[in-house]
Specification:
This protein is α/β, with parallel strands linked by helices. The strands form three sheets. It has an eight-stranded mixed beta barrel with strand order 11-12-14-15-16-17-18-19, surrounded by five helices. It has a five-stranded parallel β-sheet with strand order 2-1-3-4-5, with helices on both faces.
Length: 576
């Protein structure tokens, strides 16, 4: 099954004429006056009849009335051109290609050629009984209108490709007619398409989608298969298996960029040699997962679905299903990693960061690098954050009551949390219920959060600071903010991105940028906290640069509360 020629916009055409009970328009192309009159007499009671006695006049009438013509009755022998040439021109023009044509001739040998070019039916000369002609005209128009109605409902009106529902049906038919042929399910996404609309306007974005649609139709005509536009910037392709999709994607990328060759990135997910025992939508879910796996990988444009992605998908589903039970059963454990003030001769315990771990009863310890991004993308991170805050606050209260001593503990506040209108009330209630002071709980907010919905974020952070919370900008140096922006943000400390430390102290690293970053904190009058410090060399160098606080494996890994408690007791003994 090849991709069909796209239907045209039928607004204001025969479909509306039919629904309104109006007469359809029929064009009779016949050079013999008597024959024109006979046909007109047969049809004028039911149709608005137009006539033409030459090929040139016929094409002129078709072009002028292409949107409203329901049928053309075409004589093959005309004084200025052959009727088959007119038929070819009509079928090559997208405006007139939809108009059905009944060929009229006494040359029966032309019947097959007429039908092959695109004629809908054939009436021989001399003409048969009027009822026969009227029935053929009526039936041809009905079939054409039904075909147009189907095309109207099955097509995306912008690109001419199938819409999603019809696409899945036709993809199933493809399997029916190619039961032993390997097939691929392909998803093509235009990366950051919303930015194209914002930068260049919706008209430009629509033209880009049309170009991609035209190129997909050309590719389907050449190789077989079908395509659809599933969503604004997502296209689906189903067809014969191919070993290499690089050229396929190159052609689509060139079409998307157009003559300007704009830098438009397309990414493709391929589920090759699909398992035909699973339903069609599931096959494209697999292809979409492959495409999403390279969403932020700008060096890779094509990804293939394989067993590892399937296992990852099933694992992720298991974690999502088990989330609420994990909250209820307190499977999530809060670990504490100490922070040390390195300005004195001997480092002094400065505070700690609360970090979450998941001890699953069946899967064992699960890395936060696995479940935190998953919960962020599925909207569960807010519930997880609130859980960590409560557990951290309860532990702080316990240490204060039992030990009479504690250090501030910082907790992560995600961007999702920052968008919560009840955030300040939630944190105020947490402090009140725990009997803590606002300075006991430091709030870590990532640098990237300040750059999205900046006004709202900054307003919320300002209210939290006014309440007494200490605000630490986490992941500073990851490249999201400008110096001008930092100078105006409501922050009490800068926390250097861990990757920044690793890069600076790598084999080819340069610590000069690290020194400059520390100078920025000094200029702002806030302490610099460096996390991810693993060696004495790194710690001493940071101290030399003027860094204030260090966190990392050099001092201690994240640990359960019971293991962190001796650090508190040691510092308490030192202080007293």
């Amino acid at each position: 099954m090849n991709e069909f020629t796209p239907g045209i916009d039928l607004t204001g055409t025969d479909l509306e004429l039919r629904s309104a009970g109006m007469k359809r328009h029929v064009l009779i192309v016949e050079d013999e006056f008597v024959n024109r009159e006979i046909l007109t007499a047969y049809l004028e009671s039911d149709y608005d009849v137009l006539t033409a006695d030459t090929g040139a006049k016929a094409l002129e009438a078709v072009n002028a009335h292409a949107d409203t013509l329901s049928l053309v009755l075409l004589d093959l022998i005309l004084p200025d051109m052959h009727g088959l040439d007119i038929l070819r021109k009509m079928k090559e023009d997208t405006k007139s290609a939809r108009i059905p044509v009944i060929v009229m001739t006494s040359d029966t040998e032309s019947e097959v050629e007429s039908l092959n070019i695109g004629a809908s039916d054939f009436i021989s000369k001399p003409y048969p009984m009027p009822k026969v002609i009227q029935a053929r005209v009526r039936r041809t128009i009905e079939l054409s209108e039904n075909r147009d109605l189907i095309r109207w409902t099955e097509r995306d009106h912008l690109t001419g490709l199938f819409n999603r529902d019809y696409f899945y049906r036709y993809a199933g038919q493809y399997d029916t007619f190619h039961p032993h042929e390997s097939a691929d399910a392909v998803v093509v996404d235009i990366s950051h398409f919303h930015m194209v609309n914002e930068r260049y306007g919706k008209v430009y974005g629509d033209e880009m989608l049309k170009r991609v649609g035209r190129e997909l139709r050309a590719l389907m005509d050449a190789s077989g298969g079908i395509a659809c536009r599933r969503e604004a910037d997502t296209f689906l392709v189903y067809g014969p298996h191919r070993a290499d999709y690089a050229d396929f994607l190159d052609r689509l990328s060139a079409a998307a960029g157009g003559e300007s060759r704009s830098r438009i990135r397309l990414r493709m997910g391929v589920y090759a040699d699909v398992d035909k025992s699973i339903d069609m939508e599931r096959r494209f879910d697999h292809a979409k997962m492959a495409a999403d796996s390279i969403r932020n990988d700008f060096n890779t444009a094509i990804a293939c679905y394989d067993i590892s992605l399937h296992e990852k998908e099933m694992y992720a589903e298991r974690l999502l299903d088990d989330f609420q039970e994990a909250i209820d059963q307190k499977q999530f454990l809060v670990y504490f990693q100490p922070k040390y003030d390195i300005r004195p001769d001997s480092p002094v315990l400065y505070g700690a960061e609360a970090l979450v771990r998941w001890k699953h009863p069946e899967l064992g310890m699960i890395s936060p690098g696995v479940f935190v991004p998953l919960f962020e993308s599925n909207g569960l991170v807010r519930d997880l954050d609130h859980y960590v805050w409560r557990e951290a606050a309860a532990q702080l209260r316990d240490w204060k009551q039992r030990l009479g001593f504690c250090v501030p503990v910082s907790v992560n506040v995600s961007r999702v949390d920052m968008m919560d209108p009840e955030l300040t009330d939630t944190l105020r209630g947490l402090i009140a219920d725990s009997g803590l002071s606002f300075t006991d709980l430091h709030l870590e907010i990532t640098e990237s959060a300040y750059t999205q919905d900046a006004k709202q974020i900054i307003a919320t952070v300002s209210r939290l600071r006014d309440m007494g919370f200490v605000i630490e900008m986490d992941d500073f140096g990851s490249g999201y903010s400008s110096l001008n922006m930092i100078s105006t943000l409501p922050i009490d400390a800068l926390k250097l991105d861990m990757q920044f430390i690793r890069t600076a102290f790598s084999e080819k690293g340069n610590t000069r940028m690290l020194e400059i970053t520390v100078d920025i904190a000094r200029a702002l009058g806030v302490p610099m906290i460096a996390e991810g410090v693993e060696t004495e060399e790194q710690m001493l160098k940071l101290k030399e640069f003027g860094c204030d606080v260090v966190q990392g494996y050099y001092f201690a890994r994240p640990m359960p509360a019971a293991d962190f408690e001796p650090f508190l007791l040691k510092q308490k003994a030192t202080d007293y």
